[in-house]
Amino acid sequence: MPAPPCGAGEEQRGGEAVLTRRIIACLDVRDGRVVKGVQFQRLRDSGDPVERALEYQRQGADEIVLLDVSATPDRRATCVDVVAAVRRSLSIPLTVGGGVQTVADAEALLRAGADKVGVNSAAVARPELLRELAQRFGSQCVVLAIDAQRSTSLVANRPPLRASQAADSRRPEWRIVVRSGRERIELDAVAWARFGAGLGAGEILLTSWDRDGTAAGYDLDLLRAVCAAVGLPVVASGGGAGSEHLAQAYAAGASAALVASILHDGVTTVGALKNTLRGRGLRLRP
Amino acid sequence: MKLPRDSDGAPRPSAASGCPAPRPYAASGRRTAAQVVVLSTGCANLASVCAGLRRAGAAPRLSDSPAEAQDAARVVLPGVGSFAPAMDALEDSGLAAALRRRVAAGRPTLAICLGLQLLSQGSEECPGRPGLAVVAGRARALRTLVPEPDAAPPAGDGAPSPPTVLPMPQMGWNQVEPDPACRLLRPGWAYYANGYGLDQAPSDWGRAWSRYGGRFVAALERGPLLACQFHPELSGAWGEDLLRRWLHWPASEPCQPRPAAQARSSAEGKRC
To answer: Which CATH architecture has domain A21-268?
Structure first.
């Protein structure tokens, strides 16, 4: 057998620890339509959520994430009808987030057919929400969505923070952004991830605000720091625009990588991404 | 439109066993959808489970009635959450006793995720809290599983590689490998969301396995009894096919354990 390509080592070892990486298709939904923007702004129409979700399922997506991007700024109820419509046909996991403020909000989404619920701003405002959700529904249902912005003033001066340093740092390397980018908070993203994991989150959806929609690749320093700080599965989000970016995210510790624009725009398909990644020795579902 | 003669849904007796033959998977519009009672245990993803059953052609209905849990034609025990609260809910509602009798009688039952663990004797998640104990074995934390000794060593060098730290809980897809004796379960990929699992399973059940660090029980089957650690309702076309096979499995089939050697041998092994 030919030697696997460089970087393939960890995925193929004997019968021991083997992690199947995931590719997750993300649908940002506003007013019942899929939209996509840059750094959460300048949204443009990318189709019908049910059609998009089923197309990505056909392509081999491992999960669908549906984010109601209008919910938080507008304080509108989340799009329960869209969730129910997607659920009727979709036979892979569905995570829904956007504007979830309370246990009752989460319950409404789960009742509509979501498998996991993402919380973001509301958990920052009141972390206890994470514990309440985990107690009520189980950690498997609770996704802590974190939007992180790099503090550029610090980056030039030193290498990426180690996890142990992050907890003690007074000047965060990445700050939390809430309300779809409208508000920045002096809260260290890595410390927040660790805190949220302790409260009962079952997965971290980690979005780089700086990279979102830029096709510049995931923020690998951010991924490494968060993956070192929590034992939970971490989903890389923001900037992924090709198989090379996904491979980098997995190497940095991500269990899954989120993609959106490149699928919406037809630049590539989930199947094509998986084929390339499998050629690099990564384990993915066929 | 003229329908084929045998499309009224009446199960035809099988010559070999007297059991009704499994219905074809693609039910026509005229056929009555399989009635399924989904036990409303207060767990989170009931709607998703029901949607999955509907996609597989069933007509699911929620119920928390012990009488139905015991006697309904087909029952699903879904499960997301923690072991002890789930057992408390089952005991308090009277569903626990009903489920024990139902499984003992071999009535068609599908347990999902935590549902499988609830059938066992207990879980490391909540030591001292007994489960329904209809399946011998206990759930262990996946992080404590170790690779099987016979697992293939890494190619090239003989030195054992340091174990990769796997994220917990397991959240994602994994390969399912059924023992040859399995009839409902087939090889494929399934979606998991679990931090615990059975590391051993009794040999009087058909068993399927997955690996996450070490080997754990992916699913158990015995006649029309099916317990899945994974989520068949979220496992794509493979999961949907499994749900269909379970929905169409003859309810009256007895579920005696078969010797493993026989199971491999023939198509006749399809009947108990």
So the answer is: Alpha-Beta Barrel (3.20)
Q: Which domain holds residue B126?
A: 34-149+171-270
Question: In chain B, what residues touch A17 (CB-CB under 8 Å)?
Answer: 147, 163-166, 212-213
Question: What's the complex ipTM?
Answer: 0.88
**B166 domain-assigned:** no
Residue B19 falls inside a structural domain: no
Question: Which member of A12, A16, A115 has the closest CB to residue B234?
Answer: A115
From chain A, the residues in CB contact with B233 under 8 A are: 91
B189-227 as b/e: b if 16+ CB within 10 A: bbbbbbbbbbbebeeebbbbbbbbbbbbbbbbbbbbbbb
* Chain A residue closest in CA terms to B193: A140
Burial of B271 (0-12, 13-18, 19+ CB in 10 A): middle
Do B114 and B147 meet the contact criterion of CB atoms below 8 Å apart? no
B200-259 residues touching A, CB cutoff 8 A = 211-215, 231, 233-237, 239-240
In chain B, the number of structural domains is 1
pLDDT digit string (tens) for chain A, length 286 residues: 343 333 334 444 444 457 999 999 999 998 888 987 666 666 778 889 999 999 999 999 999 999 998 654 554 555 799 999 999 999 999 999 988 999 999 999 999 999 999 999 999 999 999 999 999 899 999 999 999 999 864 444 445 555 555 444 444 589 999 877 788 888 999 999 999 999 999 999 999 999 998 999 999 999 999 999 999 999 999 999 999 999 999 999 999 999 999 999 999 999 999 999 999 999 999 9
B212 and A17 in contact by Cβ < 8 A?
yes
The CATH number for B74's domain is 3.40.50.880
Closest Cα in chain B, distance from residue A10 (Å): 7
